[in-house]
Amino acid sequence: MRFFFPPFPPRLRIVVLLFLCGTGASLRAAEDESIDFTRDIRPILSDKCFHCHGPDGAERKGDLRLDTREGLLESGTVQPGNPKESELVARILTDDESDVMPPPKSKLKLSAEEIEQLSRWIEEGAEYRGHWAFEPIPSTAENSPTRSTHPQRRNTIDDFVHARLEQEKLSPSPEADRRTLIRRVTLDLTGLPPTEAEIEAFVDDPALDAYEKVVDRLLQSKHYGERMALPWLDAARYADSNGFQQDGDRHQYIWRDWVVRAMNDNLPFDQFTLWQLAGDQLENPTEDQLIATGFNRNHMLNGEGGAIAEEQRNNYVFDRVDTTSTTWLGLTMACAQCHDHKYDPITAKDYYRFFAYFNNLPESGRVDKRLGRIQVAEPTMSLASPEQEAREQELNREIRKRNKVLNDHKAEIDAAVRAWWDGEKKIDPETLPTKTRPLVGRPFEAIVPAEQRMLIAHFTKIQKEHPEWAAAQREKEKLEGELQSLRREIPVIMVMREREGDRRPTHILNRGDYLSLGEPVEPGTPEVFTEDESEFAPTRLGLAKWLLDDGNPLTARVIVNRHWQTFFGIGLVKTAEDFGVQAEAPSHPALLDWLAAHFRENGWDVKALQRLIVTSGTYRQSSRVAPEMVERDPENRLLARGSRFRLPSMLIRDQALAVSGLLNAKIG
């Protein structure tokens, strides 16, 4: 149905509406700047419209999509240049509760300002732009800024920041004093405060590159890797225990220590990615490359008695999908586990194609508790020393010898055990192992196999008629005790490995229920981002290469934003783990894109990226701030001053230990 307005112009109708809402005074100010679709319009549509008219086909009403150019412009919903003839505006302004949008039952309502912005956008021509994070990253040559003439200009970062400040009629703050500066950069790059000698040496150094020399020294510190590992461990949901009620310990610290070494060695980020997602699929992988795959085994492990193994196995794969997509793509793919994503162009099929990459491990969903407090799940990798390996092989050989003696007499032993247990003579429970005492009085056949084996082992050891049985059993138990003790000393890390034979089939799980199998799917990346999947193998290694491909618009943006957040307390994109449609737009989009392109074009060199950031004039500014600037820009998004933010808790602890002389500086 088409709605028609009274004969006065639509702009006047909007003015009247704003006046009645008490916001008419803001209209002229709002008109001073043209409407930007990415900044002003898509957030309104995402918040108020996408739930019913967005990517989720199952929830879509009226077969209308407002998240695409076709749905907005080619369907007739919006008539560029003519708000009066646009169904979008008509549905928003109608008084008919059966036609008004959003519908009253949704509890959503557009503000007067939002209605004004939509109307102005249409009147200005309804220019449509794709979501900024999904657009290709321009090269540094295509996105070259005008060089800043400000005396505090140090590198290209400042060119972008100064241009924005000039636009806002602001100036950068003066550079911080040297004592403040060395403390700031030392904490940021190593997690520890500078020593008195380091401070005085910097303060007294007259060289023009005195600060750059400090930065280069800190980048080579053995503590650099420890500091830079912290945000990565958070992204990888690293923990020293398994979670859940039993919360068994694990040896994933081996992976953690590898991360520290990799960062100290400045392993290029593309290799850092390939090793962690698919190190086991590289040709002739090294021990480090296999250890690196522990990234995707940092999930919780449920070893509780009531846990359903297959349900837990699926939960572990869900975790890998969510962690990988959030860490490298900045997307909330978990939203598509049960249905098409409500806001981003990710379908449930996309989700389970991504799921298929991680669904082929030889894992059962059960936890191996043979190592006592250390509780792990296959696949694992042992890091035994040559001496430990030799001793383990020797113990296994000796145990096999004793097992042969017992197996050669199995029929005799079984008959003797049954005669002993089910015989007329009453067995005294006090003579039995504690766990088997409640079994007295029950027929042997009524006892579960695990408990039968316990009784067989006990009887074999105590009977007198066959001393060779008893000797073999006692020696076997002694050797098994030694083997268990040895294994508890050998670090065992959970890693990634493909199972042998056919690939485990993957299905779309209806509503995310592992028991409700839907359409079968093969491994693949989200269709919206990949024009030609044939160049990427349907393996984890193919996935890793796709994440790093120049055609992927997200990975480089997401990673440089994480590094920016480390040094400024808040990313250029505030929602660092969400670059989707619901994300906050970047404060400096051109700078974000330039950094992303520069990172890729320079070999994914992390230390070079961080050096660029901390040597910029922007980073070196004083953090002193006037009250009016606190009110105008409380979060320092304009970067007119040095950022103020609290140290992470671990750094506060280490700082206290360092200044008190109690810090243990040993790595690992």
Summarize the structure.
This protein has 668 residues and is mainly alpha-helical.
Tell me the layout of helices and strands.
Elements: H1 10-20, H2 27-31, H3 37-48, H4 50-53, H5 69-74, H6 87-93, H7 112-123, H8 156-167, H9 178-190, H10 196-203, H11 210-219, H12 222-235, H13 253-264, H14 269-278, H15 287-292, H16 309-329, H17 348-357, E1 368-371, E2 374-376, E3 380-382, H18 386-408, H19 410-422, H20 449-462, H21 467-489, E4 492-494, E5 506-509, E6 517-521, H22 540-548, H23 555-568, H24 589-601, H25 606-614, H26 627-632, H27 649-660
Antiparallel strand pairs: 1-2, 3-4, 5-6
Helix pairs in contact: 1-7, 3-7, 9-10, 9-11, 12-13, 14-22, 18-21, 19-20, 20-21, 23-24, 23-25
Word description of this protein:
- The chain has 668 residues and is mainly alpha-helical.
- Helix content is 46%, strand content 3%.
- The chain has helices at 10-20, 27-31, 37-48, 50-53, 69-74, 87-93, 112-123, 156-167, 178-190, 196-203, 210-219, 222-235, 253-264, 269-278, 287-292, 309-329, 348-357, 386-408, 410-422, 449-462, 467-489, 540-548, 555-568, 589-601, 606-614, 627-632, 649-660; strands at residues 368-371, 374-376, 380-382, 492-494, 506-509, 517-521.
- The strands form three sheets. A two-stranded antiparallel sheet has the order 1-2.
- Helix 3 (37-48) packs across helix 7 (112-123).
- The radius of gyration is 32 Å and the shape is globular.
- Residues 1-31 have low confidence and may be disordered.
How would you sum up the major sheet?
A: 2 strands, antiparallel
Strand content: under 5%
Structural class: mainly alpha
Average pLDDT taken over every residue: 90
Number of alpha- plus pi-helical segments? 27
**Helix content percent band:** 40-55%
The coarse overall form would be globular
Physical arrangement of strands within the biggest beta sheet: 1-2
Rounded to the nearest angstrom, the distance between the terminal CA atoms is 69 Å
Pick out the low-confidence regions. 1-31
- The Cα radius of gyration reads 32 Å
Q: Give the number of DSSP strands.
A: 6
